[in-house]
Amino acid sequence: MPSLVDLACFIDSINNIMLTQENLQKVEALFKRYPEKKAALLPVLWIAQDQEGWISEDMMKYVADLVGVPYAHVLGVVTFYTMFNDKKLGRYHIEVCTNVSCMLKGSDKIVSTVERVCGAKIGQTSADGKFTVSEVECMGACGGAPMIAIGENYYESLTPEKTEQLLTSLK
Amino acid sequence: MEKYILPDIPNLHQIDVYEQHGGYAALKKALQMKPDEIIDEVKKSGLRGRGGACFPTGLKWSFMPKGNDKPKYLAVNGDESEPGTFKDRQIFEFNPHLMIEGILIGCYAMGITAAYIYIRGEYRKWVKMVDKALADAYAKGYIGENILGSGFSTNIYTHMGAGAYICGEESALMNSLEGERGYPRVKPPFPAQKGLWGMPTTINNVETMSNVPLIINKGAEWYSKIGAPKHPGPILVGISGHVNKPGVYEVPTGVPLLTLINDPQYGGGVPGGKKIKAVIPGGSSTMVLRGENLEGVCMDAESLKAAGSSVGTAGLIVMDEDTDIVKVLARISHFYHHESCGQCTPCREGTGWLEKMLHRFEHYEARQEDIDMLVEVANQIEGNTICALGDAAAWPVQSFVKRFREEFEKRVKIREEVEAA
C-alpha cells in the first residue's frame, strides 16, 4: 500500500508542473544578478519549493530547462542540500536541533516531546499529514538552546512543557 | 567597554537611525581616499578575519589584482554553521547597515563591482532583514550606480544557501554561489587569482566586514590598540551550554575565558555553582580545554594557541562537571560525518569510522585498543583532505582523547567489568 505522502507525490507528478507567471518574473530578475544563469539555480529552486512545498522530478526537469543545465545536475544539487525536499512534507515541518549546545541543555527531552505530541518519529510524517519531524544540525541559536524551528521561525529556550504548548497551538 | 558592532541603540537596523548615529560617514570618507590607502589602513589596523582562520584582512585584500580589465567579486560569508556560533545573525538583525557599509568600503578598495552575501538557508528570516536593509541603502544611493556622486558603482545581493555546513568553506561557498554542489576546490589557484566564475575574488566573514567602517572612521592606530595587540579589535563572543546567561557579547579581544563565563555582565557563571569540566572555545571544531586549565587563557588567537586550541568563531561552549564528555564527542563526530561533502576519501570514510567508534564508546561497547585507534583514524584524516573539514573533524577527537583520556578508559573498564560479571 502506498502511503498518503507517496500518493500525493504521484498526483503532483502527473500534473504538468511549472512556475507561475509571477515566479517566472522573479526568476528573470534573479538571472540579472549573476554573470551566468546557472548561478541562479539555488534561488530558483527555493522559488520552486516555496510554490509547491517540495521539488518533484518534473519540477527538477522544468528548472533544468529554465536555468540551462542538465536534469542530472539539478538532481545532484537538490539531493546535496538538506533543505531541498524531494518528497512532500507535512503541513508543519518541525526541526529539532540536537547539536552540542542544545544537547547540553536537554534537547533529548525536546525530541521525545515533539515525537509524542506530533505522533511521528524523527524522519517521519504523522499519519494525518500534519507534522514532519526532523533532527537538524546546529541552527545558529545556541544562546537560546534548546530550540526548534518551524518554517522560518525559531522557538528558543524551550522546555518540554513550552514545546507541547507550542505544538498544541498549531492544531 | 564601549560597543561598536552591536551598540545598545534601539532600531539601529533602520537606515535613518543608523545615519543619525554616524552611519555611512566611513563610506563617505573612504570614497575620498585612494583605494590603496584604504587597504593600507586595514593592514595597519591588524584586523584579522572573524570567520575562524584569523587571516589578516588587509593582506587578503592586497592579494587582489589591480586594474579593471576583468570583473572582480566579493563573497561575504554569512553561512555561519559551526556548532556553537550564532554571532552573524545578531549583525543581520541589529546592525545590518554596518556590514553593508563595510562591504561597500571593501568593494571600493578592491575595485569590485558585485558582492554576494551568502547566508545559510536556515536564516531565511534574517535574509529578509538584510534584503530590506539593502533595498533602503539602494534607495539612498549608497549602493548602485555612481555611489554618492563618486563615479564608483557596485551592486550587493544576498544569496541563500540550502542547508550544508561545508558551504561555509570559502571555495565550497563559491561553488554553491555558482549553482553547484558545495564541493570545496583544490587550492591553488587561490580565490584572489581564480575565484567566482574564474575571476579574482575575495571572501570575508560578515563580522570581519562589520569592523571595516570603524577602522576608516577612527583610524588604524586607534583600532590596533583595542584588545590583544596581535589580534586586536572588538569581537563577538557567543556563549552557550552550561552558563546562566547564554548569548552573544561584544568584548575587546583578549578577555579571559573565565571572565566571559563567570562575570555577571557576560555568561553569569555556571548554574548551581557547579565546576567547569570542559570548554570548547571557538565552535565545535576547536580543541577542547579542561576546566582546571583555564586560568590566564584569553579570547584571542595568540593566547588560545598557547593554550593548545584556537579562537575559531569565538563560539564558547561551556560544560559543567556532570557532562558526559564521551557523549559530547560522539555528537560532534556525528555532525562532521553528516556534513562531510564526500569528495575526499580520508574525510568521507574517516568521519564515518569516528562516528561509529564513538557510538561504541558511548554505549559501553569499546575496547582498550579502540582509544588509540580513534586517534589514529583522526590523524589519518588531518591534513589529508582538500579542505579544512577533515581537520575540523579530527581536532575534537584528538583533543578530547588527549585531555579526557580517563573518560574513555572508564567506558572500557565498565564494559570489561560487566562482561566479567
Structural write-up:
The complex is a heterodimer of chains A (171) and B (421). Chain A has 171 residues and is α+β, with helices and mostly antiparallel strands. Chain A has eight helices and four strands. Chain A has helices spanning 4-14, 21-31, 41-52, 57-67, 71-80, 100-104, 107-118, 160-169, and strands spanning 92-97, 131-136, 148-150, 153-155. With 421 residues, chain B is of the alpha/beta class. Chain B has three domains: 15-224, 3-Layer(aba) Sandwich (Rossmann fold); 234-320, Ubiquitin-like (UB roll), CATH 3.10.20.600; 325-420, NADH-ubiquinone oxidoreductase 51kDa subunit, iron-sulphur binding domain (de novo design (two linked rop proteins)). Helix content of chain B is 44%, strand content 12%. Chain B contains 17 helices and nine strands. In chain B, the strands form two sheets. A five-stranded mixed beta sheet of chain B has the order 6-5-9-7-8, with helices on one face. Chain B has a four-stranded parallel beta sheet with strand order 3-2-1-4, with helices on both faces. The longest helix of chain B is centred in the C-terminal third of the chain and has 18 residues, at 345-362. The mean pLDDT of chain B is 98. The chains are: A alpha+beta (171), B alpha/beta (421). Chains A and B meet through α3, α5 and α6 of A and β3, β5, β9 and α13 of B.
Question: What's the layout of helices and strands?
Answer:
The complex is a heterodimer of chains A (171) and B (421).
Chain A: H1 4-14, H2 21-31, H3 41-52, H4 57-67, H5 71-80, E1 92-97, H6 100-104, H7 107-118, E2 131-136, E3 148-150, E4 153-155, H8 160-169
Chain B: H1 15-20, H2 25-32, H3 35-45, H4 57-62, E1 73-78, H5 88-94, H6 96-110, E2 114-119, H7 124-139, E3 155-160, H8 170-177, E4 201-205, H9 206-218, H10 220-224, E5 234-241, E6 247-252, H11 257-262, E7 276-280, E8 289-290, H12 301-306, E9 315-320, H13 325-339, H14 345-362, H15 368-381, H16 389-403, H17 405-420
Helix pairs in contact in B: 2-6, 2-9, 3-6, 6-9, 13-14, 13-16, 14-15, 14-16, 15-16, 16-17
